[in-house]
Design a protein that fits this description.
The protein is α+β, with helices and mostly antiparallel strands and about 350 residues long. The chain has two domains: about 170 residues, Thiol Ester Dehydrase, Chain A, CATH 3.10.129; about 170 residues, Thiol Ester Dehydrase, Chain A (Roll), CATH 3.10.129.10. The chain is built from five helices and 15 strands. A hairpin with a 5-residue loop joins β1 and β2. α2 runs antiparallel to α5. It is globular and about 50 Å long.
């Protein structure tokens, strides 16, 4: 029988998560954030705790799961907006751009469960009255002595009435009838870093470089609560899976992604995913341009960088990044920062 001291230690180690409403989740079991504090230099430190096991995220001895990383950063945004930037509850946080790059430490197989910190620096801030109206943030994700990733994001904040006008009568789940979920692509979920077929978000479209977005509105992570559109976290995971699905000598891990959100992906029309592989870069990394289109119009784009090909020797002048330059003609229409 465990001693009183052992039980007390277990209770002490149990993380104390923030209220689910502060990070826009319905299921308390999906909350990752444990708090935040000012860093004394004008920025903030948000604390989180990664699970030892989970139905969707890759856990155990593994590289950092980009989906878990992205969701952790996403949860930190409403937490800080409501707590540090005077954004009222009920306001909508809309993604404009989001990018991340994993470090070599993040690619090492290691048990990542436990506490971590997000060091957040505000690069640009626009206010409307006392509250934040738009933010550009730099986020460094640190666990112990390891820097796991650097992320940057721009988001805007809209009052409920403004959001309803932006959505033109489609701003509530009740206003939209979602299409039934299409069949998952014929691939082992493990090849995409997932454990369940329901976590495969691609459906076949008759080509090695195109798919239909698989939208399952009963999925416990992507649709933790009813939504009137496909959430940004689902689009990011679709881009990651599409880059991994492309024919290649070996399946390489996703190391980085730069994304832009142009329009909402609606639930009542099919969304098509197109992948355009680029030539192997001089740095030995493969990159792919991913585009999500609906009704013939691009709604989301990403440049996905995969791990370096083994035995590749980069040239001294190797370029290490590829950037998305949003088209001024179409502009960016931000997508809500939700799971």
């Amino acid at each position: 029988m465990p001693s009183t001291a052992t039980h007390a230690a277990a209770v002490e180690q149990r993380p104390d998560f923030v209220a689910r409403q502060l990070i826009h989740k319905a299921n308390p079991a999906e909350v990752l954030m444990t708090g935040w504090r000012p860093d004394g230099n004008g920025g903030f430190v948000a604390s989180a705790h990664w699970p030892a096991s989970h139905g969707c995220y890759a856990t155990g001895r593994t590289a950092v799961d980009p989906l878990l990383l992205t969701e952790t950063v996403r949860q930190s945004l409403p937490l800080l907006c409501h707590g540090a930037y005077a954004v009222p509850m009920g306001h909508h946080l809309l993604w404009d751009t989001f990018s991340y790059e994993l470090t070599p430490q993040a690619l090492a197989s290691k048990d990542r469960s436990g506490p971590l910190e997000l060091h957040v620096t505000c690069l640009d801030l626009t206010r409307r009255g006392t509250r934040a109206a738009a933010l550009t943030l730099l986020v460094s994700v640190v666990q112990g002595a390891d820097l796991l990733a650097q992320c940057t994001t721009r988001l805007t904040v809209q009052a409920p009435a403004v959001y309803q006008r932006l959505r033109a009568g489609r701003g509530t789940p009740e206003a939209v009838t979602a299409l039934p979920a299409s069949a998952a692509a014929a691939i082992s979920p493990s090849a995409l870093g997932r454990a369940r077929h329901r976590d495969v978000v691609l459906s076949p479209a008759g080509s090695d470089t195109s798919w239909r977005l698989r939208v399952d509105t009963t999925h416990p992570l992507f649709f933790d609560h009813p939504l009137d559109h496909a959430p940004g976290i689902l689009l990011l995971e679709a881009a990651r899976q599409a880059a991994r699905m492309l024919p290649a000598p070996r399946r390489l891990p996703v190391m980085a992604m730069e994304t832009s959100f142009f329009r909402y992906v609606e639930l009542d029309a099919p969304c098509w995913i197109e992948a355009q592989p680029l030539r192997l870069g001089p740095d030995g990394h493969r990159r792919t341009v991913i585009s999500l289109r609906q009704n013939g119009v691009e709604h989301f784009s990403a440049v996905v960088k995969l791990g370096r090909e083994p035995d590749h020797r980069p040239l001294p002048s190797a370029q290490t990044g590829a950037r998305i330059i949003p088209s001024p003609a179409r502009g960016n229409v931000a997508v809500p920062v939700r799971a």
